[in-house]
Design goal:
The protein has about 120 residues and is an all-alpha fold. Helices cover about 45% and strands about 0% of the residues. The relative contact order is 0.11.
């Protein structure tokens, strides 16, 4: 049985080799100058400690593209209110720029072009 430490080391090496060779969806996006690693990893510091949560590493061997739903029906008093907003209405409500990494992660707008 492989130890957790050995698994993480092997994963880090594989990630470095893959990123260096430009393989994978992030490599393609970076090569097309759509999203860079800096764009994906950019965040505002909230204190003195940074925790990077990585989940489900083994699934990255065959990445699954999850598309947010284009329809979320809200009826009555909740019609047009979060969480019953999708696509452009969602982006406008939360002030998310079209074509950004956030738009890719949170809406189905331009999903296919941003996934490439």
């Amino acid at each position: 049985m492989i130890s957790r430490r050995d698994f993480l080391q092997a994963t880090a090496v594989a990630a470095a080799l893959t990123a260096g060779s430009g393989l994978g969806p992030l490599g393609r996006a970076a090569a097309q100058q759509k999203l860079s690693q800096a764009d994906i990893l950019r965040f505002e510091s909230q204190g003195q400690v940074t925790i990077l949560h990585v989940a489900d590493i083994h699934a990255q061997l065959m990445p699954l593209q999850f598309r947010e739903p284009a329809v979320n029906l809200g009826v009555g008093e909740v019609k047009g209110l979060p969480p019953h907003l999708t696509d452009a209405a969602f982006r406008e409500h939360f002030r998310i720029a079209a074509g950004s990494a956030d738009a890719f992660a949170l809406t189905s707008d331009d999903f296919v072009s941003l996934a490439r």
